[in-house]
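Homework help board

Subject: predicted structure for assignment chain

Our instructor gave us this sequence and asked us to write out the predicted structure in token form, then describe one feature. I got the tokens but I'm not sure how to describe them. Can anyone check?
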Amino acid sequence: MEMTVSPPDPGSEPGRPAMLRVPTVGDPARWAAGARDELRTALVEHGAVLVRGLGLRDPSDVAAVLGQLGVEPVAEKETFAPRQSYSPGIHSSSAWPPNQPMCMHHELSYTLGFPRLLLFACLAEPTTGGATGLADAADVLDALPRTLTDRFEREGWLLTRSYNGEIGATVTEAFGTDDRDAVERYCSAHAIDCAWQPDGGLRTGQRRSAVVRHPADGRRCWFNQIAFLNEWTLDPEVREYLVDEYGADGLPFNTRYGDGEAIGEDVVRLINSVYEQHTVRRPWQAGDLLLVDNIRTAHSREAYEGPRDVVVAMASPARPDTCSATIERGPL
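My token output:
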């Protein structure tokens, strides 16, 4: 059956992303197959589009929709927090305390095979809060101080991680194995320095670009997780506990300038403040589908109450060299 899609509402309401309303459909996957070209056009124009009316009910619905979009699923590696995997490319949201927001970031931007496309499907809406915020990465880059972005563009950013088996993802969850040789081979192949600790834990460090050019139009985008994975974004009590327990160099994750210098709390607050100034959001409704261009658009998650269930699909793996990364992505 031939299907047509009305142009998305451009989000004329201040603070609202583009939304596509569709008639209630009995077969979301069939609808997605007919709407594939229109969805791609909407993503190019808006960077993110919320589809309302699909009535998605479970992870299998999301997998079926993803399968009709003609994109390759991304097998997640190097996860920073545990999540459940339902099928190739389909995962639960990351385990993160509901009373703590997740700051703006680009999914897996510290990996060499990050997804270019994200699908978020709301299966159960929260009672309050829990919206997924969106921010245009090119606008954020333009709004940040030039001296700051120039430094990050020259040096990139450094992500350090400590796997201790107690806080955050375990080695097995992050790398899919606990075999030391296999982990070391993965790290070597993906420009990650790694060192096993006397207690059996693992510490890693990887330098990545903070600014990339979008492969579709060449726009320079602020593409990283510098603020989100930094120690100063943690709840103060949580940060104090972790530093006391594991030491300043043993935090589950932290970010630095590309030359290894610590990033000050003022810089992290500034980045998050600029993100907030450019954030748009809509409250979730059960059955919603949100498509996000992961390079052009950063996303966040508000704190919430109630049974929020949002499934995440990752697809279209990209390599940094396809995005004109601004630094050499080699070992430290």
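Reply (TA_rk): Your tokens look well-formed. For the description, you could write something like this. The chain has a mean pLDDT of 90. That's the kind of observation they're looking for.
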